[in-house]
């Protein structure tokens, strides 16, 4: 699958079976894809999550759905599962596993995402060969019990101005339709969302609304850029 990672990050849906509301995980992902999510992460984690064959079975179904919609499929934490499912990449946190070893295991044609919570971690992740970084939590979240302290969208701006002006960045944590614009405005390529889509009454409508915010923010940033350019050449 050839796609620019910065574009894929625009609306990044993260989900496992324990995150869903009325619909089963396949139907939830189907709706999210119909709504226009641009990247998916299978994150089967937490109390009551599927393990073993059941996890592989669900992973395979979700992987197939993503293929149908030509949306890249990332696996959280579990490199063996990622390889088994033929994933397009893996996402690891600071305490999960060694990024260099992970890269060796997955090869250079797969995407590696690394979670970061400071400018220093962001720079180290880039050195360690990340293809993108997740920055968060942007806002407080009920979805991840052991989440890091809130860092806010300001951290994305700090990372951008610290020299990573073009590196693919996605914000995560507590992102809603009300606050997503702040994350794009801070300089993120995209937003990563669990409950904002999986717990919505209509995951399809929520995904479509996030997608619209992403598109509008992009054209707004482009307008801002052009007017800055115009002013500087006057
Ligand atoms: C896109 C994205 N960013 C951050 C995370 C969090 O990863 P981690 O800190 O390893 O926590 P868990 O998700 O493993 O609980 C993520 N999954 N995705
Ligand atoms: C996985 C993860 N990593 C940092 S916050 C978070 C949870 C995001 O879930 P939600 O979008 O429901 O706040
Ligand atoms: Mg992890």
From TrEMBL:
Sites where the protein binds 4-amino-2-methyl-5-(diphosphooxymethyl)pyrimidine: 41-45, 76, 115, 144
Pfam families named in the record: TMP-TENI (PF02581)
UniProt KW Metal-binding keyword: yes
Recorded coiled-coil stretches: none
Recorded catalytic activity of this chain's protein: 4-methyl-5-(2-phosphooxyethyl)-thiazole + 4-amino-2-methyl-5-(diphosphooxymethyl)pyrimidine + H(+) = thiamine phosphate + diphosphate; 2-[(2R,5Z)-2-carboxy-4-methylthiazol-5(2H)-ylidene]ethyl phosphate + 4-amino-2-methyl-5-(diphosphooxymethyl)pyrimidine + 2 H(+) = thiamine phosphate + CO2 + diphosphate; 2-(2-carboxy-4-methylthiazol-5-yl)ethyl phosphate + 4-amino-2-methyl-5-(diphosphooxymethyl)pyrimidine + 2 H(+) = thiamine phosphate + CO2 + diphosphate
Native species: Metabacillus bambusae
Pathway(s): Cofactor biosynthesis; thiamine diphosphate biosynthesis; thiamine phosphate from 4-amino-2-methyl-5-diphosphomethylpyrimidine and 4-methyl-5-(2-phosphoethyl)-thiazole: step 1/1
Name the UniProt record assigns to this protein: Thiamine-phosphate synthase
Family: Belongs to the thiamine-phosphate synthase family.
Cofactor: Mg(2+)
């Amino acid at each position: 699958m050839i796609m620019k990672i910065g574009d894929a990050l625009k609306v990044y849906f993260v989900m496992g079976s324990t995150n869903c509301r009325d619909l089963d995980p396949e139907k939830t992902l189907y709706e999210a894809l119909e709504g226009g999510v641009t990247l998916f992460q299978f994150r089967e984690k937490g109390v009551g999550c599927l393990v073993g064959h059941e996890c592989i079975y669900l992973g395979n179904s979700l992987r197939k759905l993503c293929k149908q919609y030509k949306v890249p499929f990332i696996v959280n934490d579990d490199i063996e599962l990622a390889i088994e499912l033929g994933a397009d990449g893996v996402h690891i946190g600071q305490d999960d596993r060694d990024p260099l070893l992970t890269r060796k295991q997955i090869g250079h044609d797969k995407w590696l995402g690394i979670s970061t919570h400071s400018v220093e971690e962001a720079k180290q992740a880039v050195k360690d060969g990340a293809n993108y970084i997740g920055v968060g939590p942007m806002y407080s979240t009920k979805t991840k019990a052991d989440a890091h302290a809130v860092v806010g969208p300001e951290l994305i701006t700090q990372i951008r101005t610290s020299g990573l002006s073009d590196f693919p960045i996605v914000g995560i944590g507590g992102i809603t339709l009300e606050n997503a614009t702040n994350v794009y405005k801070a300089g993120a390529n995209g937003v990563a969302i669990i409950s904002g889509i999986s717990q919505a009454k209509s995951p399809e409508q929520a995904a479509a609304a996030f997608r619209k915010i992403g598109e509008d923010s992009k054209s707004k940033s482009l307008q801002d850029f052009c007017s800055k350019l115009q002013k500087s050449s006057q």
